[in-house]
Write a structure and sequence with these properties.
Elements: E1 4-7, E2 10-11, H1 17-28, E3 33-41, E4 46-53, H2 55-72, E5 88-97, H3 101-119, E6 123-127, H4 138-142, H5 145-154, E7 174-178, E8 183-189, H6 194-204, E9 209-210, E10 231-232, E11 239-246, E12 251-258, H7 266-279, E13 284-290, H8 295-308, H9 317-328, H10 338-341, H11 343-346, H12 360-368, H13 376-399, H14 408-443, H15 450-491, H16 497-521, H17 528-563
Parallel strand pairs: 5-7, 6-7
Antiparallel strand pairs: 1-4, 1-5, 2-4, 2-5, 3-4, 8-12, 8-13, 9-10, 11-12
């Protein structure tokens, strides 16, 4: 699945939209990234930009934006209310999907090195990307601000992590970091009292509330040996919260920043506030997400609430989102549109152009047209997706079968496996066509000079190899589907055993059909060693798939005879 990183650079210009537009244009010019938000502030004279994309492309876009900012913003003349030390003051990278923090840190270091080496700007690395413990906290890196940076850089202990050891006077100093995704999340209460909302906020936020002697509101504040107030911690880690009244809606809210949703996910925060509000005589009526959220945060919430109901978690992505929205009341104040609130959906390709989003009739008509794509590979992936979907259906029906309540969880696990296989096969429906298009594009490259011919030849070979890899992946996933179908034929709802049989026929067909595409796409491949390896593995998968199909069909036939 596609790896995604968010980047949130802060530029020291919040008044001149011409400058801001020229900087953000650099970001938009990079394929593979999408500009999500531009938030200028006049008082702070600072603009926060948010964009997201694949890792290498995000690093490229960030570098170009930092370069343009260094050319357009002169820190010697900058004034603003917000602490700052550079034209690009901070540039954090944030993991969004299918990427670890360790990987993001490596990309942050790559970006920091380019800024230091190519732009001659001193760079400090902070948060998870920090190379020294005392630089983890951004405030330490930025202390002294721009005006004090020349002296700070001269101190051996504050030698920059990358770039020159002296101040770049026009551009200043930049901090590059890697941090967790921050979610701004508000929970609605059936009260207008800010004081009562604050009480709940103090119950849950990590900082908690100030400890007092005697009365919790009016008693003397307890202080430590340094004279600082002692706090009673709240119940949720990595959470900041406060209560406030929203005049527009006529309700009080708990306004929260979830600074690490892997520690405290959205659904955990919601349930904890529900519990604490109820103990104080209030009720949560709904909630709202401010800004964007990663897809997994919503899918995890949907699974969480289904599990509480002892319902199968192996349902579609769309159904999980629906469950999450309704369970947390995300649509109470205004409609929740996943295409506008979920990052992965915001940056997705035009949905209307995807084969996987066509109606059954339109897909068949497109396949039957004179166009060579979609071809056998796409159809194999689609047939495999239909096959495993039947197995998933049997798992879901079995998990809800009356009298089988104690078995719901094991069937839920199989349904989740089936959904994951189905989702990848549906992705491969389009990917097989994209692989074919890559070959056509390679053949269309110029071939006038010797260098042109060399580049064209290499492109054709790389595209051909990819056109082999995609149907081979279809084979592998369709074969995995047979495991789900075999278990459902043996242990699933007896009334649906024929569906498991039909699913097995589809899955084996997908394996064989995809293997045909592996072989025909290899005709022009020069790397025969690579093909021989793939071909050997393919033969083993196909033979095993045929045996497994026969076993499943035999079991299905036996069970159907018994039911008669």
């Amino acid at each position: 699945m596609q790896k995604l990183i968010e980047c949130v650079p802060n530029f020291s210009e919040g008044k001149d939209m011409g400058i801001i537009d020229r900087i953000t244009s650099e970001i938009e010019a990079v394929d593979g990234v999408k500009l999500l938000d531009v938030d200028p502030g006049r008082a702070t004279n600072r603009t926060v930009v948010t964009f997201v994309g694949t890792p290498d492309e995000v690093v490229e876009a960030a570098f170009r934006a930092v370069k343009k900012a260094s050319a357009l913003i002169d820190m010697r003349r900058h004034k603003g209310a917000h602490p700052r030390m550079g034209a690009t003051d901070v540039c954090p990278l944030v993991p969004v999907a299918n990427i670890s923090m360790e990987e993001v840190v490596s990309y942050a270091h790559k970006l920091a090195k380019r800024i230091g080496d190519e732009l001659d700007i001193p760079v400090y690395c902070y948060e998870n990307a920090a190379l020294k413990p005392d630089r983890k906290n951004l405030a330490n890196c930025r202390s002294g601000e721009y005006e004090g940076m020349a002296d700070k850089l001269a101190q051996p202990e504050w030698k920059p992590d990358f770039g020159p050891g002296k101040l770049n006077e026009p551009a200043g100093v930049t901090a590059v970091g890697a941090r967790d995704f921050l979610v701004a999340y508000n929970i609605n209460l059936n009260t207008t009292s800010t004081r009562r909302a604050n009480a709940v906020a103090f119950d849950v936020r990590e900082k908690g509330r100030v400890k007092r002697e005697g009365h919790p509101l009016t008693g003397k504040i307890v202080k430590d040996e340094k004279g600082d107030p002692v706090h009673i911690p709240g119940t949720l880690k990595e959470v900041k919260a406060i209560g406030w009244f929203i005049e527009e809606y006529g309700i009080a809210q708990i306004s929260m920043n979830l600074t690490n949703i892997s520690v405290t996910p959205v659904h955990v925060a919601f349930d904890e506030v529900c519990d604490k509000a109820a103990k104080r005589g209030m009720r949560v009526t709904g909630s709202e997400l401010v800004g964007l959220v990663p897809l997994n945060a919503i899918l995890d919430a949907g699974k969480y609430f289904l599990k509480k109901q002892q319902r199968s978690l192996g349902v579609s992505e769309e159904e999980l989102i629906k469950i999450a929205v309704k369970s947390m009341g995300l649509d109470e104040l205004k409609p929740f549109n996943p295409r506008e609130k979920i990052i992965e959906y915001m940056i997705a390709d035009d949905e209307d152009t995807r084969l996987a989003n066509m109606s059954v009739r339109d897909f068949a008509n497109e396949t039957a047209s004179e166009s060579p794509a979609p071809g056998g590979g796409s159809v194999s992936a689609y047939v495999g997706a239909l096959g495993v979907s039947l197995g998933t259906m049997v798992a879901n029906l079995s998990s809800h079968k009356r009298g089988w309540d104690e078995q719901w969880e094991q069937f839920s696990v199989w349904a989740e496996k089936g959904q994951a296989i189905k989702d990848e096969l549906m992705f491969l429906v389009d990917e097989d066509t994209r692989a074919f298009n890559r070959i056509m594009e390679a053949f269309g490259l110029p071939k006038k000079t010797a260098e042109d011919k060399k580049v064209r030849h290499q492109a054709i070979q790389e595209a051909t190899k990819y056109a082999i890899q995609v149907p081979f992946r279809i084979m592998q996933k369709a074969y995995e589907a047979l495991e789900v179908l075999e278990v459902m034929a043996e242990k699933g709802n007896p009334a649906s055993v024929s569906d498991a049989g039909v699913g097995a026929l589809c899955a084996r067909t997908a394996v064989t059909g995809a293997f045909m595409n592996v072989k025909i796409n290899a005709a022009d491949l020069e790397d025969k060693t690579y093909f021989e390896k793939i071909h050997k593995e393919g033969l083993e998968i196909e033979a095993s798939a045929r045996r497994k199909e026969e076993e499943i069909i035999r079991k299905v036939e036996q069970l159907m005879v018994k039911s008669e």
